[in-house]
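Data card: per-record layout.
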Amino acid sequence: MTTEASLAETFDRQRPRLLAVADRVLGSRADAEDAVQEAWLRLSRQDADSIENVAGWLTTVVGRICVDMLRSRTSRAEVAATAEIPEFVVTEDLDTGEDSPEDAAVLADSVGLAMLVVLGSLRPDERLAFVLHDMFAVPFAEIGQILDRSGHAAKMLASRARRKVQGVPAPTGGRRRKQEQREVVDAFLAAARDGDFDALLRVLDPDVTWQRYTATGVTVGTGSDAIVAAVRRGQGTRVLARRVAVNGEPGILAWGPTGRPLGVMACVVDGGRLVGIVSIIDPGRLARMSLPEPPAGD
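The structure for this 298-residue chain is written out next.
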C-alpha cells in the first residue's frame, strides 16, 4: 500500500522517464509535457491505496494519453505547432564527382530526416509499441495492456514498426546512390514544371509521406495524390524551383517572383522513387536560414 505523499514522490522520480517516453512517441517536447501533466492530474485523483505499482500505472496512463494524442493528430492530418523543426543545412548541389567536406559534415542529419519520415508514417499503436519495447524495454505483456490487446498482438505491432524503421534508406552510400537521388529529384522537378502528371506519379512512391512545417504547425500526409494535387494548384504561378543540397543530399528550393524563398524540401529517395518529403514553408523560419540565391536571369 502507499500514501498520497509517496504517490507524489514516486511521480517526481518517474517524471524524467515518462517525459522521455512521451517525447519519443509524440515527437514534441511540449506535447510530452502536456501528456505527463495529464498523467499527474489523473494520479492525483486516484485513491492512493488502490495502486500497487505506481510506476507501471503511470506508464500505462502516459502510453494511452500518447496514443489518443496521436490518433487526434491523424484525424486532423496535423501535429502540434510546437513539434520540433528539423535542422536543414542548404547549399548548392554541385556535381563535382566527389563529396565535399561540407557534405560529409552534414550527411548524418539526412538519416535523421529519413527516420522522421518513417516514424511519422507509423500508426499510433505501432509507434507506441516500437518506442516502449525497443527504446525502453517495456515487456510486450504490459504494452498489450496499454493498447487493450494481447501481448502477442503488441509484439506484432512492434515487429511491423521495426521493419519500417529498418527500411530507412542509409546515407548516400557513395556517388552512385547520390546520382540516383539527383536523377529522381530532377525528374520530379521536370514533371512538376511541365505539368506531366503521369511522369509525376511514376517518380512518386504511392505511399510517399509528406511532412510540411508551416508557421502554424505541421501537416502530415501520406500518398502521392496530395502531392500531385499541390502541383496542380501551382500550375501557372511564377515559382522557380531547382535542385539544391539539403543536409548533404539532393533536395529542392523554391523562390517566388521577387526572389523570396517559398520553401525548402528534403527528399528521401529509395528504389528510384521519392518515398518521403520533409518541407519547411514557414516564412519566418526560412528568413532565418542561410539559403542559396536564385539563379541570375531566371
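Known properties of this structure: Residues 101-111 have pLDDT under 50 and may be disordered. The CA atoms of residues 67 and 96 lie 47 Å apart.

See the next section for split statistics.
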